[in-house]
Amino acid sequence: GRAAAWSAGLAQLAAVLLERAAEHKDTLLPGCTHLQPAQPVSLAQHLLAYAWMFKRDVERLADAQKRIRVSPLGAAALAGTTYALDPAAVAKDLGLSGVFANSMDAVSDRDFVLEALSCGSLVMLHLSRLCEEIILWANPAFGFVRLPDAYSTGSSIMPQKKNPDVCELMRGKTGRVYGALTALLTLMKGLPLAYNRDMQEDKEPFLDADRTVSESLALMAGLLREIGFVPEAMRAALKRGFLNATELADYLAAKGLPFREAHHAAGAAVAKAEAKGCGLEDLSLAELKGFSPLIEADVFEALRFETAVARRNAPGGTGPDSVARQIEDLRIWLAALEASGA
Q1: Does the predicted TM-score (pTM) go above 0.85?
Q2: CATH number for the segment(s) 245-303
Q3: For residues 267 and 219, what is the distance between their CA atoms, to the nearest angstrom?
Q4: Which candidate in 46, 108, 155, 214 is catalytic?
Q5: Rounded to whole angstroms, how far apart are CA atoms 308 and 314?
Q6: How far, in Å, are 3, 109, 118, 188, 195 from residue 191 at the CA level?
Q7: What are the structural domain ranges in the chain?
Q8: Strand, coil or helix: what is 304?
């Protein structure tokens, strides 16, 4: 079925994300909240966030198939059949999960299409978010990625431009899949039992959404295989954003300063560094001591971006041990998925 095809596309995409994450376990970039630089994270951690989203999409589709793959054989027009059929045997032969419990429900229900479209909408939502980040990262203001020629175009007027066409189209087509779901929800909301001719309108939106989801998954997998990441630009953005400010506050708190005061001292140090046009780590020890006498020479180790990342090895964190565990867990999941034939 189409749900199985989507799952295969999602698994392929997750595998590509794992490959690229394994390549960039030591590449650091700004993690953002409110699209503002917040704390350093590894590029691997960022990519793995999407792998986990796509894993949930696969699991959601697997759960939906228990309800989607139900045979309506024997429901007839609405009241059930008078013929000696064996719906359970036929369903088993067809590889379906079961048979209907109520004939009127069987002929008047389109939940199976709606649930598939709901799953597809979430897949596209996750793809669209990834597209948006690639579009931002490709902007020279970020410069975090270099787009492959096959997935971008130049401008018809401005020769210097390289436009992220595929990502923009995927982001736009997300609304198309949402539209299919909304159209069918609207179609079904006022129908009395049992069958109504209105229901034939379920075909076109689903088939269009199926094509969009399938092609988008394949395109994103191809794009991620070929996209070039630019660690140097990511590193430069770390320094510009004072992403080690939290580390300074944590350092002072560990020395016994109440966090409220530590937060204030770190903020004042950021203001000083910003005025000087340098990073926190570039301030002298004497300058840093001006914000708290608790600051010693070991502060410079705490202010290293690598230290900030390495300290966060709690489960799910951006630390290298945590990232390695995530990669291994996802590899085990993909191997089990392949072995199951799902």
Answers
A1: yes
A2: 1.10.40.30
A3: 44
A4: 155
A5: 13
A6: 26, 10, 20, 6, 8
A7: 2-67+104-232, 245-303
A8: coil
Answer whether 232's CB lies under 8 Å from 21's CB: no
| Interstrand relation of 162-163 and 153-154 (parallel, antiparallel or unpaired) | antiparallel
pLDDT of 155 strictly over 90: no
DSSP state string for 112-135: HHHHHHHHHHHHHHHHHHHHHHHH
Q: How confident is the model at residue 241 (pLDDT cuts 50, 70, 90)?
A: confident
Burial 151-178 (b: 16+ CB within 10 A, else e): bbeeeeeeeeeebbebbeebbebbeebb
CA distances 9 to 219, 224, 324, Å, are 10, 13, 24
Q: How far is CA 121 from CA 90, 113, 126, 205, 247, in A?
A: 31, 12, 9, 12, 39
pLDDT of residue 161: 80
34 in catalytic set? yes
In the numeric block, which tokens belong to residue 243? 């992403």
Task: State the pairing for strand pair 70-71/98-99.
Answer: parallel
Q: Whose CA is closest to 5, among 182, 123, 169, 181?
A: 123
Q: Could you say which of 34, 156, 284, 340 is catalytic?
A: 34
Residue 324's SS3 state is helix
Q: Which among 177, 190, 49 has a CA at the least distance from the CA of 119?
A: 177
Does domain 2-67+104-232 sit in CATH 1.10.390.10?
no
For 265, the token pair is 């001292």
- Classify residue 260 as exposed, middle or buried by CB count within 10 Å of its CB (0-12, 13-18, 19+): exposed
Please write the tens of the pLDDT for every residue from 159-210. Answer: 678 899 999 999 999 999 999 999 999 999 999 999 999 999 999 999 999 9
User: Is 70 exceeded by the pLDDT of residue 299?
Assistant: yes
Say whether pLDDT at 47 is over 70: yes
